[in-house]
Amino acid sequence: MEKKKFLYEGKAKKIYDTDDVNLCIIEYKNSLTAFNALKKDSIEGKGELNNLISSSLFELLSEKGIPTHFVKRVDNIHQIVKKVSIVPIEVVVRNITTGSLCKRLGVEEGKVLPRPLVELYLKDDALGDPLITEDHALLFGWSTEEQLLKIKEIALKVNSVLSEYFTGLRIILVDFKLEFGVDAEGRLLLADEVSPDTCRFWDRDTKNRLDKDRFRKDLGDVLGAYQEIWRRISSSNEDGAR
Ligand code: ADP
Ligand code: UDP
After folding, report:
1. Is 236 helix (H, G, I), strand (E, B) or coil?
2. Which one of 27, 95, 136, 195 is at 20 to 30 Å from 203 when CA atoms are compared?
3. Measured distance CA(37)–CA(112) in Å, rounded
4. Nearest ligand (C-alpha, residue 36)
């Protein structure tokens, strides 16, 4: 399957049409952004690692019965996905307090939450992706009640599948962001990517940050952290632990 018409270039990926109207190709870029793209860089090899990691995690999620857009990885930087109309809401699930949650609410960093916290943000770069309530999503037509119920249910299932999986890799899944879309048949699917760009991963033993926080906070060796995540995932794939 070949790339046809170029559709969209975002901060981390490009999207292309294919011969099949229901499928598109995602190309993973090396660019890395933070703080609503105020901080930018490009790291050789980052796109490839995110493509490998996201493909593997989407395969795992599909195996666990989660409806996703993922079809297959084509090569190091491309994957085929079902084309969806993206619900303009970023869904964040948190297990441990950090990041914008602590900044916004003044709560202590690193606290294990009694249960996962689900937050909704409006996907709008110009507004800096503001936090919204379910009522905002419903009243302004960003999603339906039925979609919201499914979105929250799937987001919590993704959290339990990934938390258990990463525990086996001696990694703590601190928080992550998901996107959802609706396909040509009207099905709600988990879309976009699941990678160290969109998740916070802490090494269980050292608490080293193995994700984009290394870039956000200038901790150094960003690529090494992404490589370490891929190293542990690929060795668990080889062991058949999945
Ligand atoms: P951003 O737009 O946030 O800068 P990216 O660089 O990651 O993000 O670009 C990818 C874009 O593609 C995002 O806007 C995402 O919502 C969208 N997208 C992800 N999966 C699909 C899909 N299966 N079909 C259509 N669009 C998708
Ligand atoms: N996140 C993301 N894209 C965004 C905002 C957040 O992938 O546009 C992820 C981020 O990597 C983290 C989680 O969502 O895993 C929660 O991020 P937070 O709200 O703490 O935001 P940040 O600290 O990045 O401003």
Report:
1. helix
2. 27
3. 29
4. 2
Give 8-45 pLDDT, tens digit per residue. 999 999 999 999 999 999 999 999 999 988 999 999 99
- The verdict on the CB of residue 199 being under 6 Å from ligand 2 is yes
Tokens of 210: 């193995």
**Ligand 1 touching residue 84 (CB < 6 A):** yes
- Whole-model pTM over 0.70: yes
Instruction: Determine if ligand 1 sits within 6 Å of the CB of residue 27.
Output: no
DSSP letter for 98, please.
-
Express each pLDDT in 131-146 by its tens digit: 999 999 999 999 999 9
**Which two tokens mark 34?**
């933070």
Query: What is the Cα 21 distance to its own chain's centre?
Result: 24
User: Cα(180) to centroid of ligand 1, in Å?
Assistant: 10
